[in-house]
Structures are given as C-alpha cells and as structure tokens.
Amino acid sequence: METLLCWGLGLLFGISVYLLLNRNLVRVLFGITLISTTINLLIFTLGRLGEKNPAFVPEHATKAIGVANALPQALILTAIVIGFGVFTFSLILITKAWQELGTMNVDNMLKAEPRPQENKPQ
Amino acid sequence: MITNYLPALPIIIMLLASIVAFICWHFYRIQKLATVLACAILLCVSLLLLYEVSRHQILIAYISDWQAPFGITLVVDKFSAMMLLLTAIVGLCVAIYSCADLNHQHIASGFYPSFCILLVGLCGAFATGDFFNLYVWFEVTVIGSFVLMSCGGRKIQLDGTVRYVVINLLATLILLTAIALIYGVTGTLNMADVARDIANMPSNGLITAISLLLVLALAVKAALFPLFFWLPASYHTPSFSASAIFAGLLSKLGVYALIRVCTLVFAYNTLIHNMLWVLGLLTLIIGILGAINQSNLRRILSFTLISHIGYMIVGLVIGTPLAIAAAVFYLFQHVLVKVSLFMTAGIIERYAAHHRLRKISALYRLHPWLAILFLIPALALAGFPPSSGFWAKVMLIMAAARQNASITIIVMLFVSLLTLYIIKKIWLQIFLRDQQKQLPKPALSQQDKLLLFIPTIILLVLIVIISLDPVLLFNFTRMISEQLLHPQQYINLVLRGIS
C-alpha cells in the first residue's frame, strides 16, 4: 500500500512541476494547488499507514495498540486550511491581474521589469 | 506564571493589534494608533526578553503544558531575542513612518491589519522551536506580505505581486515537503529532538536530500544567487513603508532560519557547507553587478540588499566563533541600514516627485539634511570606516583570513568597492548634479514631515551609535555565536522533561 502511494505521489509531483513550469498563470495556480495536495498526501504516507483504529485511548491505558497516527491528520488539517486561504488570495490576485494587465502570460507582464528598449527616452 | 509564557507575549500583542485594526476597518486613526502602540509595547517586551535571556540563557514556553517533543514549544535564546528586538525597532519605525507615507487607498485596502499580521508571523518564526510551527509562521508572514505588496492596486504592483506570490508559495511548499520528510525519518517535529536524532543517525542519502530541500526553500526566502530574481522584480512596486519592512525583516527571516538550521540540525554536513559557500560568493558578485545598471533608486537598493545577504552567508559557512559573531553583527546593522535607506528613498521621492535617478537632481543644494540622511547609512552599507558596516566587514575578513580563505576575502573587498561605486553614482546623480532647476515644492504638511523624518533619524542615531561604539554589540554577538555553536545546551534545556 505504501509503495503504491509513493509511486502515485511521485507521479503527482511530476504533474504539478509540469504545470508550474507553464507560462499561463492559471496553470501555475493549478500546479500550486496540486502540489499542496500532494504534500498533504505525503505527510499522510510518512505518518505510517496500516493501523486503522481511531485514536481514542481508554482512561488508564499506558500503551495504545493498533491505533492510527493522529499527528499527521492534525498537520494535514492545518495545511489544508492554510492552502485554502492562499489559493483564494492567489485566484483573486490573478483575476485582478488579468483584468488590469489584460494577459495571463507571464512573459507579457512587463510593468514591473520593462524590457531595456522601453526604458529609453522618447 | 506569566514569565512561563513570556516567549509567546510578542505574538499575542501583535495578534491583538491586528484584531483591533481589523475591527476598526473604517477608522484610520484608530488603526494607526493601535499599530504604533502595539509596536511600542512590543519594543518593551523584547527588551524585557533580552534582559531575561541574558540572565537565564534560554527561555522556553511549553504551550498548554505539553512536554517538549509532544507539544509546540516556543524557545527564545539570545539569537531569537536579538531578532525580536530588531523586529520591534523596525516595526515601530515603519509604523510611525507609514502614518505619513500611505494614502487613503493603501489604508482602505487593509495595510495596517496585514502589517500587524506580518509582524505576528515574524515574531512567531523567530520564537518557535518546532518545525511545523515554523512552517505555519512562514505562511502567516507570507500571507501578510502578499496583502502589503498588493494593497494600493496599481498595475505595476499587481505585476510585482504575481511574481512574488508564486515564488514564495512554492518556497513554503518546498519547506513543508522537507518538514514532512523530517517527520517521516525522525518521528518528531521538535527542533531540539530532531537535532538529537539526526546527530545520532548515520549520515545517509535521505538526510542529505532532506537538508538540501530545506536549504533550497530557505535560500529562496533569503534570496540567494540563483533564486533571487523575484526580489528585484517586486520590492520596488509597493508603498515605501511596505518595501522598508520587507527589505529589513522579510529577507532576514530566511537568513535567520538558515543560520538556525545550519548550526542546530545539519551542523556537520559538508555538502551543504560547500554549496552555501559557493552560493554566498556568487550572490555577493551577481547581486552587486545587477545593481550597477539600474536607474530606479529602489531597484538599486534591492540589488545591493541581495548582494549583502552574501556576507552573512559567508560568515555562516566559515563557521568559526568569530565568523558567526560577524555574520550576526552584520545582520543586525544591515537591517537598520537597509530600512533607513528605503525610508530615505521614500522621502527623496516625495521631495523630487520622481523615481528615476535621471530625473532627480540638486538635492544637496535644496535639502542638505536629506543628503546627510542618505549619506550616513549609504556609507555604512559600503563599509566606509568607521561606520557600522566597516566593523562588520573587518570582523568577517579577519575570520576568513584565519581560515586562509583568500578568494573569499578578495570577493568581499571587491563587492565592498563596487557598493561604494554605486553610492558614488547615486550621490553624483541626484545630490550634486545641479541643473539649475527648482524642484516642485512638495505637498508635505509639518506633521507629515515630522512623521517621515523622526523614525528615519531614530534609525540613523542607532547606526551612528553602533559605528562609534561597536564593542557592546560585538560582545553580545560573541555570546550569540557561543550559544549557536554549542547546540547541546539548547537541546538539553528544551528536552529536560524526557532525558
């Protein structure tokens, strides 16, 4: 199961890097979303799979046997919430940039760093 | 009881301030007042922390009383206390400066709440002793800085923000990947526990890969050589207050985390060590070469910022007690110098009503005070004796000379010389060149002038004090480097509950 997940994770990382290298900002945004989901799965896998029981420990127990690791779940939950917020902000930013600058292609965004010939005095 | 939670206090103060600023969304005066007040309290608290740290070495707060490797631990050692003090000083100065610098549109799009959130993130990142918590604070900082970068909404800002957002999101995600792998290998997230586990493990390929991922993410944040192109593309676009706080604290967050990780967790990794050495030298050269051909004042300052990050990295990789002390000394004075330069650049643009060097002239004749305000930090940047930058560079060169690192010394001196050349260029261009032209009278009220000049002068006075009496700061940085180079004390104190 873990081997299968690892191969899947590798594939997902590959796809997200491919998307991130694109010049179209929408694809870059999808790449960021996909890579953050992939990392969440990575955390889940690294927390070791196999045990299935929820982490309810009886009152006087000193050892919890057969209990799933609860920490990765907490970490993933935090990462998902942060990811949501950041995704929303980026989506709005890119929409706004598209409205104002009229392009989604990073190569055509030349406001902040104009090409040298546009610098010369008229 | 309250002293147990002292390390959490800076975070709480700024969080409260941001909540107040959010609630008073339409009341600009209250927002300004709350921010300035919170920064002033933050300054007092960080001084108190500094005092406590000098008595007890390390302050530790176990959140909700969870013992060390299980809960979130906040750890303030001398280095963290110094960074918190810097955050407070810069935060206060920029908060005062911003009262006159910002227009209504900036404040209406939420400058002050996000400013406070940015400081929350910085305080948290400097105080935390837990890797996942570090990631969370990085995200908080990044979100705050996104809003600061974009508020105002000019076209050039949107362009700069897009570049900044994409690269910084990616960097934090790489950081998260590295942290996930650390958790997978060691089964813990507490920095002290991770450091102990990794020191006991045989060095293998996986550990090297993890450390490379971690350094990659932090190098993007610190703007090291092949990864810095987002910084000059975006730092000249937002308001001057925003770019001052970015230049002062945000890029230093990466440097802080690099120093922390390289001294605590991956202390003896030769691959990382050699790689950072080469990258540090290349950052020094390429950064300063980028600055030569620029025509925008803030872009020149951005490139010199990148270049001078290289000095701190070189100090870190030389790794002797003197070198680490020099790097930390450099860090301290460089923050003050850079913030004061960015603030002065803002005042210059207000007076000259233009940002291209070609269009500004004769400022020395018209505003001699402004010239002094620019010249002193600029000379400190270049390392002109007896400025604070000079002492930092002397220490670095002495440390490098003891290790017989001749190429490093040559590069450091060469970059220093080029920095001086760039300052000479700015000086001749905008201060001395006299085109017999009366500048437009700036529309600045008396109150605005006070608000713009007072924080800049405070920073200037601090720089002059460090320049004239570097011994006090030097002794403190020596203590910091002692503490950083003996991580066993840190580990033992944090994990005293279980070992």
Explain the overall architecture.
The complex is a heterodimer of chains A (122) and B (499). Chain A is an all-alpha fold and 122 residues long. Chain A contains three helices and no strands. The longest helix of chain A is centred in the last third of the chain and has 31 residues. Chain A is elongated, with a radius of gyration of 22 Å. The model of chain A has no long low-confidence stretch (mean pLDDT 85). Chain B has 499 residues and is an all-alpha fold. Chain B is built from 21 helices and two strands. The radius of gyration of chain B is 22 Å and the shape is globular. The two termini of chain B are 24 Å apart. Chains A and B meet through α2 and α3 of A and α6, α7 and α10 of B.
Outline type of chain B? globular
Instruction: Characterize the overall form of chain A.
Output: elongated
Radius of gyration of chain A, in angstroms, nearest whole number: 22 Å
Mean pLDDT across the residues of chain A is 85
Major sheet characteristics of chain A = none
Sheet-strand content of chain B, in percent, reads under 5%
Strand pairing plus helix content of chain B: what structural class?
Answer: mainly alpha
The average pLDDT value of chain B, as a whole number, equals 88
Quote the distance from N terminus to C terminus of chain A: 66 Å
Order of helices and strands of chain B: HHEEHHHHHHHHHHHHHHHHHHH
Could you spell the SSE succession of chain A in H and E letters? HHH
Largest sheet of chain B: 2 strands, antiparallel
Which class best fits the helix and strand makeup of chain A? mainly alpha
In short, what is this structure?
The complex is a heterodimer of chains A (122) and B (499). Chain A has helices spanning 2-20, 25-46, 71-101. Chain A has 122 residues and is mainly α.
